[in-house]
Amino acid sequence: MTAPDGPSKAERTILVEGRPLPDMLDERMIHDVVHGFYDEIRRDALLGPIFNGAIPADRWPHHLSKMCDFWSSTLLRTSRYDGRPLRPHLMIPGLGEAHFRRWLTLFRDTVRRTCPPEVASLFMDRAVRIAHSFRLAIAHARGESTLGIAPILEADLRAD
After folding, report:
1. Is residue 105 within 8 Å of 96, Cβ to Cβ?
2. Which of 12, 26, 29, 129 is most deeply packed, by most CB within 10 A?
């Protein structure tokens, strides 16, 4: 039976990749990951020009809010994100392997710096899947073969 103040902790356990969501993962941590990551992106020599060229300075607050909604929906199952994340990436000419490797490296560094290891692992598992899915979709949209596109695994990223 549900308590008058909502479901008990056991009733609201969220599973991600078959694992219970750690209690310490909350909206604040997602905010810190998103904002920390995009601070790095905007300063990065490879990715900064792409993101800063695609997102006008006055639209960054909106983009950051949208990315917080995306990660909240992805990990906390809040259903706040309502969008199509692939579409903008399809519009970026020349987006390729080096960009996704750098994106994953910066993301890995951010989640390791910001989160306890079990939370960082959840973020990275999802980020690796997203990167692979986007790489396949971009190649397909360009009419390229997807047969040789293997996932970029966290273990394959260089240490910075």
Report:
1. no
2. 29
- Pull the structure tokens for residue 117: 């290891």
Write out the residue range of the structural domain in which residue 74 sits.
22-156
- Please indicate, yes or no, if residue 5 is contained in any of the structural domains: no
Indicate the burial class of 63 (C-beta count within 10 angstroms; 0-12, 13-18, 19 or more).
middle
* Residue whose token pair is 């999802």: 126
pLDDT number for residue 90? 86
How many Cα atoms within 13 Å fall on the side-chain side of residue 118?
A: 9
Specify if 40 maps to a domain.
yes
Residue 45 pLDDT greater than 60, yes or no: yes
Q: Please indicate, yes or no, if residue 103 is contained in any of the structural domains.
A: yes
How many domains is the chain partitioned into structurally? 1
Prediction pTM value: 0.85
Q: What percent of the chain stands above pLDDT 90?
A: 66
